[in-house]
Design goal:
This protein is an alpha/beta fold. It is 34% helix and 19% strand. It binds D-xylitol-5-phosphate and zinc ion (ZN).
Length: 212
């Protein structure tokens, strides 16, 4: 057992029964709930927006870990903040020259700020930003879809990020299962996102526990 935070991604859950799905996560030991927001532009898929996040907030006490895979994140921070997000993570590649503005905007709502990098983006590119955020989300698949294969080379960024800051949380997202979770924990990961793995197992409690 470790102090790892498990943040199941509802992307693989039953969207017709989200209230029940959140209760199930609470009962089965999830620490946070990971919400994947996609705009069909930054990534080739569309999912959910701030109104759904607001509805989810009403039916769960789990911290909402919102992962924005959208262009122009600065335009939408307010909506997600008011919807009740506890963590808002945006993509470095999507924010372009506005990264400082986006981080400050998130923090102005007293929400934890996260920055995410896609597999091809190096840690060096965000070196100056690591100390300004609460969390760095390392993508270990190309963002857009659940159920893809874990890319071990991307996970090696965990170490590198920790060299810039000991206090920043490092979250890993994409292809997490019992085996890849171990790999990431050994490299120093603090938060693990898992979608397909958790929802494909018959016993969710066991699945979540197996990632710790
Ligand atoms: C992918 C999303 C992930 C995804 C992870 O773009 O950011 O959060 O749901 O899913 P699995 O665990 O299925 O790889
Ligand atoms: Zn995600």
């Amino acid at each position: 057992m470790s102090n790892i935070i498990i943040s199941p991604s509802i992307l693989s859950s039953d969207f017709a029964n989200l209230e029940k799905e959140l209760k199930k996560l609470e009962q089965n030991g999830a620490d946070w709930v990971h919400i994947d927001v996609m705009d069909g532009h930054f990534v080739p898929n569309l999912t959910i927006g701030a109104p759904v996040v607001k509805a989810l907030k009403r039916v769960t006490k789990l911290p909402l870990d919102v992962h924005l895979m959208i262009d122009n994140p600065q335009k939408y921070i307010k909506d997600f903040a008011l919807a009740g997000a506890d963590y808002i993570t945006f993509h470095y590649e999507a924010a372009k020259d506005n990264t400082d503005e986006v981080i400050e905007l998130i923090k102005s709502y007293n929400i934890k700020a996260g920055i995410s990098i896609k597999p091809k983006t190096s840690v060096k590119e965000i070196a100056d930003l690591i100390k300004k955020v609460d969390m760095v989300l390392v993508m270990t698949v190309e963002p857009g879809f659940g159920g893809q294969k874990f890319m071990p080379d991307c996970a090696d960024k965990i170490n590198e990020i920790k060299q810039y800051s000991q206090s920043v949380l490092v979250e890993v997202d994409g292809g997490i299962n019992e085996e890849t979770a171990k790999y990431c924990k050994n490299l120093g990961a603090d938060v693990l996102v898992a979608g397909y793995y958790i929802y494909s197992k018959a016993d969710m409690k066991e699945a979540i526990a197996s990632l710790r």
